[in-house]
């Protein structure tokens, strides 16, 4: 039996929904404001996973222009029944308010690669929708309602409605299945049937360090449901030193070999030297965001239990399957030779189209057209990929001829519109092209190089940029010939690009590194990027 190392999906990959079709296994994860929406990974051994589908890839399925930070896709649910894949998702339109406002949809496809159907509206009164396919062929829609009645109490209700696929309609009758434990923040519900019971699995405690998986069971689908003897089936809250924290939001599955596993959300905090673990109620800073782990499950007294204890484990025993050969990418690099955007890359809120850029107008280059700045929730020309390692180097080279200070292009380390750094080239009147850095820290701007910018010689056509990220800090460098590099003498805190640092609740993504071009003058500009590489450090 081989061993599985957690997390199985590194970097920002939260809210896993685990699904099986025969001997093929899939996990769907949340993408929030990043486009295309939902990422689906495939495995045949539960250990090695590869990205196979980004289904919400057109505006008719997902229109997020103007969506707030950490809006967009929350907690998709992927299932397989009747020869189809079924994908439920929420597009959250309001975040910073007493209650969230989202739109729920259902799409289907005969294959995980698609084609995916146009979305069916499933109502706007809640989020974290799930679809349960019962043994008798009936289907049920489970979700967490959220509206004005719920704003004064932390949202503890799970509701069930029958779904009629022939009519593409929900029954108007709603049945309350559960109103939460003392942990509250009940969400992420899934239904399962095993033996003589229906099992309701929910996330509770909020999606930070008190996060947990809670399970209930009932002889009938509409209850009453009784709580698991241990109440919390999984949590790491009781173990502050555990390397995997925030563990919750589980999704259960029986393998084709008759074994049981659960995918769950987890994070790996970086602890700051000299700062107590419980300072400010936290246990560190998770710049890689919320990731996906897996746990082995056993059954006792008709209840599911996590092998080895309820806390998340770094190493888990694999199933009785043949371990697949791992495909190891020592260094990821996109030379922009394809006519379509690399699936590791995403854009913010809107698809990569002729408004944002082109991969064909200049062969072997990514051309980005200048649009909104990094603070915008509308039309940003940003193409980025996740941080998946605590230490890595990202690098690019570009050709760019700005006409004034409102046109810029370069490399960014980005969390959301209010938290980022940006190393870029622009043009100063009477000076010429300059290399600068801007930082936005909890929406407070700073311009550390604007008094003493780096001058870009007029005979230099190409500028190389890189960022070296370490567990707690990162810094930018530049080159005018691609061989001789000059570090910029500024250090930024890696841990600030994390849910834990961002002020207040309601931010759920992770750090990205990417390419950006902006022009808020309206005069028009573009930057051509020759390549974009991501090299993990040797030791992780």
UniProtKB/TrEMBL annotation:
SUPFAM superfamilies: Arabinanase/levansucrase/invertase, Concanavalin A-like lectins/glucanases. Keywords: Glycosidase, Hydrolase. It comes from the Bacteria. InterPro entries: ConA-like_dom_sf (IPR013320), GH43_C2 (IPR041542), Glyco_hydro_43 (IPR006710), Glyco_hydro_beta-prop_sf (IPR023296), Glycosyl_Hydrlase_43 (IPR051795). The keyword Kinase does not apply. Signal peptide: none annotated. One of its GO terms (molecular function) is hydrolase activity. Residues 333-535 form the Beta-xylosidase C-terminal Concanavalin A-like domain. It holds the Pfam family Glyco_hydro_43. CDD domains: GH43_SXA-like. Belongs to the glycosyl hydrolase 43 family. This is Glycoside hydrolase family 43 protein. It comes from Serratia aquatilis. The lineage of its organism: Bacteria, Pseudomonadati, Pseudomonadota, Gammaproteobacteria, Enterobacterales.
């Amino acid at each position: 039996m081989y061993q599985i190392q957690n997390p199985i999906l590194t970097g920002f990959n939260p809210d896993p929904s685990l699904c099986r079709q025969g001997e093929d296994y899939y996990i769907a994860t949340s993408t929030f404001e990043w486009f295309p929406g939902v990422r689906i990974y495939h495995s045949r051994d539960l250990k090695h996973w590869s990205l196979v589908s980004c289904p919400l890839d057109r505006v008719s399925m997902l229109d997020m222009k103007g969506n707030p930070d950490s809006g967009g896709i929350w907690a998709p649910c992927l299932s397989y029944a009747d020869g189809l894949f079924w994908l439920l998702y929420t597009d959250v339109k309001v975040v910073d308010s007493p209650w969230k406002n989202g739109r729920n949809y259902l799409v289907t496809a005969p294959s995980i690669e698609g084609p995916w159907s146009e979305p069916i509206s499933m109502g706007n009164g809640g989020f974290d929708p799930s679809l349960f396919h019962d043994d008798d062929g009936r289907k049920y829609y489970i979700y967490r309602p959220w509206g004005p009645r719920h704003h004064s109490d932390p949202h503890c209700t799970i509701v069930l409605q029958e779904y009629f696929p022939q009519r593409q309609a929900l029954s108007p009758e709603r049945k309350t299945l559960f109103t939460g434990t003392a942990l509250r923040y009940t969400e992420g519900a899934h239904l399962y049937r095993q033996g003589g019971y229906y099992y309701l699995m929910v996330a509770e405690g909020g999606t930070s360090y008190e996060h947990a998986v809670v399970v209930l069971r009932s002889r009938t689908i509409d209850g009453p449901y009784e709580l698991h003897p241990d109440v919390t089936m999984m949590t790491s809250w009781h173990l502050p030193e555990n390397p995997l924290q925030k563990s919750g939001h589980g999704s259960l599955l029986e393998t084709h070999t008759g074994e049981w596993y659960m995918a769950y959300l987890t994070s790996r905090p970086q602890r700051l030297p000299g700062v107590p673990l419980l300072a400010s109620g936290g246990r560190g800073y998770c710049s890689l965001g919320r990731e996906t782990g897996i746990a082995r499950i056993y059954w006792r007294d008709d209840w599911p239990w996590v092998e080895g204890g309820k806390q998340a484990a770094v190493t888990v025993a694999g199933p009785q399957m043949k371990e697949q050969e791992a495909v190891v990418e020592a260094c990821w690099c996109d030379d922009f030779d394809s006519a379509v955007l690399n699936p590791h890359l995403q854009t913010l809120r809107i698809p990569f189209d002729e408004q944002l850029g082109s991969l064909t107008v200049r062969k072997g280059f990514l051309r980005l057209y200048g649009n909104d700045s990094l603070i915008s929730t509308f039309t940003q020309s940003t193409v980025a990929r996740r941080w998946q390692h605590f230490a890595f180097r990202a690098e690019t080279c570009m050709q760019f001829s700005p006409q004034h200070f409102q046109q810029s292009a370069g490399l960014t380390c980005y969390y959301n519109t209010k938290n980022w750094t940006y190393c870029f080239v622009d043009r100063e009147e009477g000076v010429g092209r300059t290399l600068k850095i801007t930082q936005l820290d909890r929406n407070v701007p700073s311009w550390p190089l604007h008094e003493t910018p780096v001058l870009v010689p007029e005979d230099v056509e190409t500028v190389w940029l890189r960022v070296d990220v370490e567990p707690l800090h990162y810094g930018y460098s530049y080159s005018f010939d691609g061989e001789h590099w000059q570090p910029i003498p500024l250090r930024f805190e890696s841990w600030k690009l994390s849910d834990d640092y961002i002020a207040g609740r309601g931010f759920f993504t992770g750090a990205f590194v990417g390419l950006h071009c902006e022009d808020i003058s309206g005069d028009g500009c573009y930057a051509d990027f020759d390549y974009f590489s991501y090299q993990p450090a040797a030791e992780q």
